[in-house]
């Protein structure tokens, strides 16, 4: 054990001395590598945490939402529609919901208006999401006026600002009373945006939905299951940012590997020849290079991983924010609950450490099996 | 200290830090759990269906509620106008309704 | 100590540029003596040394080292023997740039798993013996030719081999340094080491430090 360990230490000493000789190049390489790991790890941590947060939080959304479709578009629920549903077994509660979008030309932002019962939000008052409040500089008891789509001006008093902790869900929400909602949007009486149904037994949800679409052929039920599935596939690997980052990372890795594969300089070849002539085995040379690959890739992996963790869970994935924000004006501030799973880290490890170490090894293999007498013949 | 020992110690330190950060801080703390529970309650109370991540278009603000055609409402081959369109996939296919019809209708779908 | 029987060596065997460097060498090398091979370049001296030093294998013939036939051993064992029993001093010194004298010297000791402290102590001792102790931590590229050669010699000695193999050791040295090398050579004999070297430097082959001179021409031994 002792000589084996000592030998590995010698090999590491040697490989470090070789790395130190080309210090600028190798430090640059390490930085670039760390950066790649950082971006990949950030993306992986961010999407995973966002997905698990979404699936936890949205598990509270209505079991079934029923929309009415006209010509492939979501349309209003006409009066009487609710009654047509009649009594379907298993449906605990059904209620018509009122919500819609409002474009605020003052800050060029889109808001989601949602009607609440008058018991919650009194007429003439609103509750707003905290991103919206921040953008418009609102605090409780401030007044704000919106010009409706019909051109009329409506003044509201801010009754409350929703908790900043819920920004990921409520950033752009404006909650107002039902009568205000109908007046503001000139929403015809008796019409609703959609219908929320609660089903007590989760096993019956599909049956209920099937009955609904049979009874109301122009309706479209959206199940909580589908909502969750939508968010599970958020940031799927094929999607824009992910594909872009992946492509970038793969290219960067290809460059690194190419550099390694083709970059075995005459100097390095000569050194390997010398080492072989003075009594190193092919295996020793390869082990020495494995250590080089491991030292660099492990350092990059660990540094990049830690930096990514800090970036995603302490700085709210600030690097991705401009991309996620897109053209929208309102962007929620949120910190995700750290959710990391082993498989994710293992995958990251496999896709970063292994290819690099392999890329280091391939060219060395060819150089290391040269005959040891080459140095004397040269 | 010889370089190899130094570097191995450094790597071990980093690995420990990594394991500590990822192992110890992962999973929710009490405040996290409280916040998550509060948010879930909010979702239940208001009947929310989507994250307010992308507010620029109907189908990105409420991807799960968007009609199947809204991403293509101008023209089926129209280029995506909003950058977030590349972040959000079309909502997952409905479980019913269209599913049993596939291949079973006599008229073109 | 070392016996060669009908050694033949071909390069690029079976190809159009096949070339026979050695044509049947029979030789017995005595232990504890300095043997020099003399001959023009291309006469096969260096090839012969690589075969004796287990750096390459003969195409035909047998090599016996300390009574044991080593021609058929697999590479690992050959490397083991080479590391333990042979020390090499190359014509170009073949030091690794960027490393200090001591770090170069301990390279052959690394695969043996000896502790670094042990190796460094031995390297310092050797450098002291070679009167280079004051430059032990200097990078090798900052050393003069003669100093570099002494580092190369110390490197050849780190594993305490019985046989020292030196290829044209004085080719890159001036007269004064060549004389110093001969003094070192006498030190080897005093320490009971066997030395094999190639040279066409009269200063070396005619020196009293060399016990036996073997002529070579066109891959054959000529006269002693």
Task: Throw out a few tags for this protein.
heterotrimer; B: 109 residues; mainly alpha; 3 helices; 39% helix; elongated; C: 224 residues; alpha/beta; Rossmann fold; 6-stranded mixed sheet; 4-stranded antiparallel sheet; 7 helices; 32% helix; 25% strand
Give the helices and strands, then pairings:
The complex is a heterotrimer of chains A (about 375), B (about 110) and C (about 220).
Chain A: H1 2-21, H2 23-57, E1 64-70, E2 73-75, H3 81-85, E3 91-97, E4 99-104, E5 109-116, E6 125-128, H4 130-136, E7 143-147, E8 153-161, H5 167-170, E9 173-177, H6 178-185, E10 194-199, H7 205-215, E11 219-223, H8 224-232, H9 240-262, H10 266-277, H11 282-314, H12 321-325, H13 342-368, H14 374-377
Chain B: H1 3-24, H2 30-46, H3 58-61
Chain C: E1 2-11, E2 19-29, E3 34-38, H1 45-52, E4 60-65, E5 68-69, H2 75-85, E6 86-89, H3 101-105, H4 116-129, H5 145-157, E7 163-167, H6 175-190, E8 194-198, H7 202-205, E9 212-217, E10 220-221
Parallel strand pairs in C: 3-8, 3-9, 6-7, 7-8
Antiparallel strand pairs in C: 1-2, 1-4, 4-5, 9-10
Distance between the termini of chain A: 38 Å
Number of helices of chain A: 14
Number of strands of chain B: 0
Rg of chain B (C-alpha, Å): 24 Å
Low-confidence stretches of chain B: 72-79, 96-105
Which oligomeric form is depicted? heterotrimer
Radius of gyration of chain A: 31 Å
Structural class call of chain A reads: alpha+beta
What's the shape of chain B?
elongated
Strand content of chain A: 15-25%
Query: What is the mean predicted local confidence, pLDDT of chain A?
Result: 86
Summarize the amount of helix of chain A as a percent range: 40-55%
What does this structure look like?
The complex is a heterotrimer of chains A (378), B (109) and C (224). Chain A is an alpha+beta fold. Chain A has 14 helices and eleven strands. Chain A folds into two domains: 2-57 and 234-377, no CATH class; 63-224, Beta Barrel (Barwin-like endoglucanases). Chain A has helices spanning 2-21, 23-57, 81-85, 130-136, 167-170, 178-185, 205-215, 224-232, 240-262, 266-277, 282-314, 321-325, 342-368, 374-377; strands at 64-70, 73-75, 91-97, 99-104, 109-116, 125-128, 143-147, 153-161, 173-177, 194-199, 219-223. In chain A, a hairpin with a 5-residue loop joins strand 7 (143-147) and strand 8 (153-161). In chain A, helix 2 (23-57) crosses helix 11 (282-314). Chain A is elongated, with a radius of gyration of 31 Å. Chain B is mainly α. Chain B contains three helices and no strands. Chain B has helices at residues 3-24, 30-46, 58-61. Chain B is elongated and about 65 Å long. The model of chain C has no long low-confidence stretch (mean pLDDT 89). The relative contact order of chain C is 0.21. Chain C has a single domain (2-221), classed as P-loop containing nucleotide triphosphate hydrolases (Rossmann fold). Chain C contains seven helices and ten strands. Chain C has 224 residues and is of the alpha/beta class. Chain C has helices at 45-52, 75-85, 101-105, 116-129, 145-157, 175-190, 202-205; strands at residues 2-11, 19-29, 34-38, 60-65, 68-69, 86-89, 163-167, 194-198, 212-217, 220-221. In chain C, 32% of the residues lie in helices and 25% in strands. At the A-B interface, helix 1, helix 2, strand 1, strand 5 and helix 5 of A face helix 1, helix 2 and helix 3 of B.
């Amino acid at each position: 054990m002792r000589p084996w360990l000592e030998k590995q230490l010698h090999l590491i000493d040697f490989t470090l001395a070789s790395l130190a000789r080309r210090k600028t190049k190798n430090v640059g390489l390490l930085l670039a590598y760390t950066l790649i790991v950082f971006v990949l790890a950030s993306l992986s941590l961010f999407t995973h945490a966002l997905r698990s947060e979404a699936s936890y939080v949205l598990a509270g959304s209505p079991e079934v939402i029923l929309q009415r479709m006209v010509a492939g578009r979501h349309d209003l629920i006409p009066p009487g529609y609710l009654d047509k549903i009649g009594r379907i077994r298993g449906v605990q509660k059904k209620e018509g919901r009122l919500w819609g979008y409002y474009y605020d030309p003052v800050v060029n932002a889109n808001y989601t208006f949602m009607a609440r019962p008058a018991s919650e939000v009194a007429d003439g008052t609103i509750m707003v999401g905290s991103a919206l409040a921040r953008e418009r500089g609102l605090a409780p008891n401030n007044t704000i006026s919106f010009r409706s789509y019909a051109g009329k001006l409506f003044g509201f008093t801010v009754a409350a600002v929703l908790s900043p902790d819920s920004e990921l869900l409520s950033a752009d929400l404006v909650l107002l009373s039902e009568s205000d909602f109908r007046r503001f949007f000139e929403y015809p009486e008796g019409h609703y945006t959609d219908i929320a149904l609660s089903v007590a037994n989760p096993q019956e949800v599909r049956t209920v939905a099937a009955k609904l679409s049979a009874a109301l052929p122009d309706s479209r039920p959206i199940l909580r299951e589908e909502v969750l599935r939508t968010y599970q596939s958020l940031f799927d690997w094929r999607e824009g940012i992910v594909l872009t980052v992946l492509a970038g990372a793969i290219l960067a890795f290809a460059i690194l590997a190419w550099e390694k594969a083709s970059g075995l300089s005459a100097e390095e070849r000569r050194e390997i020849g010398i080492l072989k002539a003075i009594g190193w085995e092919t295996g020793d040379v390869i082990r020495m290079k494995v250590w080089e690959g491991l030292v660099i890739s492990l350092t990059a992996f660990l540094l990049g991983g830690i930096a990514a963790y800090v970036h995603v869970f302490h700085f709210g994935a600030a690097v991705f924010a401009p991309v996620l924000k897109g053209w929208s004006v309102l962007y929620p501030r949120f910190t995700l609950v750290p959710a990391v799973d082993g498989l994710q880290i293992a995958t990251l490890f496999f896709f970063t450490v292994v290819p690099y170490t392999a890329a280091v090894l391939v060219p060395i293999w060819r150089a290391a099996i040269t005959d040891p007498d080459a140095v004397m013949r040269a | 200290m010889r370089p190899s020992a130094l570097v191995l110690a450094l790597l071990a330190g980093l690995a420990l830090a990594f394991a500590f950060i990822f192992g110890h801080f992962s999973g929710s703390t009490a405040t996290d759990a409280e916040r998550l529970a509060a948010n879930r309650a909010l979702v239940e109370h208001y009947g929310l269906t989507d994250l307010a991540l992308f507010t620029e278009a109907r189908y990105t603000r409420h991807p799960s509620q968007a009609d199947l055609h809204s991403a293509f409402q101008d023209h089926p081959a129209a280029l995506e106008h909003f950058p977030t369109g590349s972040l959000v996939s079309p909502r997952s296919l409905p479980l019913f309704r269209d599913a049993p019809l596939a291949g079973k209708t006599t008229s073109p779908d | 100590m070392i016996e060669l029987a009908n050694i033949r060596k071909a390069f690029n065997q079976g190809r159009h540029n096949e070339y026979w460097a050695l044509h049947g060498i029979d030789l017995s090398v005595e232990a504890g003596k300095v043997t020099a091979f003399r001959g023009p370049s291309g006469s096969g001296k260096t090839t012969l040394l690589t075969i004796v030093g287990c750096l390459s294998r003969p195409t035909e013939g047998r090599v016996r080292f300390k009574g044991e036939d080593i021609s058929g051993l697999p590479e690992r064992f050959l490397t083991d023997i080479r590391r333990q029993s042979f020390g090499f001093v190359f014509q170009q010194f073949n030091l690794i740039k960027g490393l200090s004298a001591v770090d170069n010297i301990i390279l052959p000791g690394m695969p043996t798993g000896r502790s670094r402290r042990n190796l460094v102590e031995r390297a310092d001792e050797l450098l002291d013996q070679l009167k280079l102790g004051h430059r032990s931590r200097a990078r090798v590229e900052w050393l003069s030719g003669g100093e570099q050669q002494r580092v190369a010699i110390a490197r050849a000695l780190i594993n305490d081999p019985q046989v020292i193999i030196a290829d044209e050791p004085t080719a890159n040295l001036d007269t004064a340094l060549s004389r110093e090398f001969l003094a070192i050579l006498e030190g080897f004999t005093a320490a009971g080491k066997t030395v094999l070297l190639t040279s066409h430097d009269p200063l070396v082959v005619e020196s009293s430090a060399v016990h036996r001179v073997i002529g070579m021409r066109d891959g054959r031994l000529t006269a002693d």
